[in-house]
């Protein structure tokens, strides 16, 4: 985790204090269940809650000797609890604490990320309606295609991040499991009702079969979901970067007073935020692959996954949290240039209306092949003139075309509004009737 790309709430979730606090809660809730079952004295469970505490420096000191983090924690805890500490961790194994804690952290991280997505969706929706009918050129292969609106670009992003939210909700549910099943997961030394109690207290579900670890296919799906969200962030970031290019300049990141774009060239206004988002997205995606490699563990458990998760748990969630917040800021303050959009749309002499002419000719009785040839031969003249010629003028001068389509019919085919007539329909599909 790099502080430059981290926000406090998500960072705090992964700090040692938070992790050991969750460990303590797992052990204390387990003691409550064991006391209810008559396995340990009720006074022992009570003592855990009343006197239970830990010291991070002391845990680190003990771990340097014993080379085992859970034992070091339990030793520190026992120093606070006293003699009753002998009843702590009854029938449990380290993975019961480690895996359940990790899933608690991932669930809580999901809740932060879901709030991030809600804020992003709200910003996108506002800009979508603001520019709902603002025409701009749609591009395929980076080349002018047909007219769209900037609002439709935002609506597309809204629909995409709505899907991201749905996926994260599903990933949260899948990761929200608890394992308190003991060595190799057989419950030989601990009653399954302890697991059920701890799971309920922590807002989790009991893992159906935990061997000695919670199956890592769950985690692989979780981190894959984060990677998909990161890819959606990058898609929007790349769109903004393209729109900010000098030759396009249909939209650009907000450039604040006093901001400087280049150490050498005072005129520069660079898309630094969206370029940063592209890089951050690469990092989040990179964590999905090791999560998938973690699925194949030896027999009932090994710890080859452990070092990986110490990296990817904090780094993926902290980075994605930062990236979502940064994208929200970009969208919220994005500077949009409708006049430049219209200028670019009209730059190529009406070529964007070529399909309408093609279809009109077919409706007038010309074969599709001949219609395509008639329109293309005029369109290529416009293309080669760099938009100095107008497609409508050339078509009016083409006797083969005017034999089938009148001047009035041709002019009607160049109506921009034709391309925008179903924007309302698309918006209803994305945002609902409201």
Q: What is the makeup of the main sheet?
A: 2 strands, antiparallel
Large-scale geometry: elongated
Strand order, largest beta sheet: 1-2
Number of helices: 19
Q: What structural class results from the helix and strand content? A: mainly alpha
Could you give the count of β-strands? 6
| CA radius of gyration | 30 Å
**Mean pLDDT level:** 97
Order of helices and strands: HHHHHHEEHEHEHEHHHEHHHHHHH
Strand content: under 5%
Low-confidence stretches: none
Measured distance between first and last alpha carbons: 41 Å
Helical content stands at: 55-70%
Describe the structure.
The chain has 434 residues and is mainly alpha-helical. Helix content is 63%, strand content 5%. The protein has 19 helices and six strands. Strands 1-2 form a two-stranded antiparallel sheet. The protein has a two-stranded parallel sheet with strand order 3-4. α2 (16-36) runs antiparallel to α3 (42-51), α2 (16-36) packs across α6 and α9 (217-244) packs antiparallel against α10. The chain is elongated and about 100 Å long.
List keywords for this structure.
63% helix, two-stranded parallel ribbon, mainly alpha, elongated, 19 helices, two-stranded antiparallel sheet
Summarize the structure.
With 434 residues, the chain is mainly alpha-helical. The protein is built from 19 helices and six strands.
